[in-house]
Amino acid sequence: MKVPWKTAWIIGASSGIGRQLSIDLSNAGVQVAVSARSHSKLLELRKKSKLLIPFQVDISDCDAMSDINNKIEMKLGVVDLVVVCAAVWHPMSAKDFDILKAKQSFEINVGGVYNVLGSVLPQFIERGKGHIAVVASVAGYRGLPNASVYGSTKAALINLAESLYPDLARYGVKLSIVNFGFVDTRMTKGNDFPMPFIMKPEKASERIISGLRKSKFEIAFPWRFVLFLKLARILPYPMYFWFVDNFIIRKLKK
Question: Which of 69, 138, 206, 242 keeps 20 to 30 A from 32, CA to CA?
Fold first, then answer.
């Protein structure tokens, strides 16, 4: 697989999509800085390729992210591609709403992305090139049961990307938002409900890299799930809530 990047930085690389993306990019000859909170998992990942270089960091720590960004550029040179995969998933309904988990979700899923952008945007804009990809979710398209917190964090990222895209394009900086459905990872293992069109991390990584190579703004899959939820976005509220109550919530209760 031929790719246009020499050096990439994957944040949230210790498991799931981030891990698979790191491996696939290194297999394509890309030098990949891999970041996560877990030092042991990063060392384990490093065994997959000499092109995987670990940098332990907590994405919710603004100062630490800026410091790591500088260290990566000093050690590996100019970074062509940054992919933000780090996220937490806390299923949550109104009855079991947990304010601490909600705050943690926003600190990592949204605040973490701000920390990354604050670190890399000045360099990318000054150079007039670079590609940033933010992993969101189809859960950000519209409010879904048990996703009151997770979905709202992803909706925030979609809005953020839509706002930044035209501005960054003026400076020659590419921006992509990645919205996918269910992927078979550690994050989804605990789900006790049907997950339609679930796919393996290898296939998801393939779709993401293909979309990034084409410089697509939105990389969304699987297409049937995406189409269904995008159509749901245009439904009037009474119709949408009726559908959710009769076809989603009742199925979850079975």
Answer: 138
